């Protein structure tokens, strides 16, 4: 595998003393897990953060080998991670993507939608400016993974206010938890519940 591409970091976990295993969402190859040497060091720690966009050079000698990745920061979400609501939204969007998408299967529509969602979270003046994109992303994720009929067939209702958005998010919770997250040990839905609670405080 040899790939040079922009990528969205959707997960990162420590590996050994200084390295990181990063899950990188690319347009061409979908989600790719890769070894990032020095990922916990001073230079790369701010780069390997879920939500960041990086320029990734990914290489592996065979399809069965864990690829090595060299990363350069393209867009940082760091300034928004100290804000409770944007940080919760970024955490959930990345966590559900990393947890549910099979590796090395391209999902170009999801890649574009996640990038647009993260941009909206970071640049909209309030949650009202990005909550519709969040609902659209969850609906698209269900549809792309084969559960569109159970989530309303991909139809995105118009959203008048945050109260209505919360109602739609609540309806989407069951299919996401049942069909996408059901067999996972990690409580990925905890990130969604935290986001939902923070949105409710604004209503």
Automatic annotation (TrEMBL):
It comes from the Bacteria. Pfam families: RecO_C, RecO_N. GO terms for biological process: DNA recombination; DNA repair. InterPro entries: DNA_rep/recomb_RecO_N (IPR022572), NA-bd_OB-fold (IPR012340), RecO (IPR003717). Gene3D superfamilies: Nucleic acid-binding proteins. Residues 1-67 form the DNA replication/recombination mediator RecO N-terminal domain. This is DNA recombination protein RecO.
């Amino acid at each position: 595998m040899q790939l040079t591409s922009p990528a969205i970091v959707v997960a990162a976990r420590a590996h050994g003393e200084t390295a990181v295993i990063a899950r990188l969402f690319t347009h061409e190859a979908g989600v790719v897990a890769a070894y990032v040497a020095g990922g916990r060091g001073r230079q790369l720690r701010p780069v390997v953060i879920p939500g960041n966009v990086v320029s990734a050079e990914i290489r592996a000698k065979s399809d069965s080998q864990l690829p090595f990745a060299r990363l350069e920061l393209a867009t940082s979400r760091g300034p928004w991670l100290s804000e409770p609501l944007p940080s919760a939204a970024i955490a959930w969007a990345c966590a559900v993507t990393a947890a549910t998408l099979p590796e090395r299967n391209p999902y170009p529509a999801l890649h574009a939608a996640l990038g647009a969602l993260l941009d909206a979270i970071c640049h909209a003046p309030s949650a009202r400016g990005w909550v519709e994109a969040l609902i659209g992303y969850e609906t698209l994720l269900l549809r792309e993974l084969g559960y569109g009929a159970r989530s309303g067939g991909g139809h995105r209702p118009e959203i008048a206010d945050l109260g209505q958005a919360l109602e739609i998010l609540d309806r989407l919770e069951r299919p996401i938890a049942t069909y996408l997250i059901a067999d996972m040990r990690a409580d990925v839905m905890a990130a969604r519940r935290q986001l939902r609670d923070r949105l409710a405080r604004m209503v």
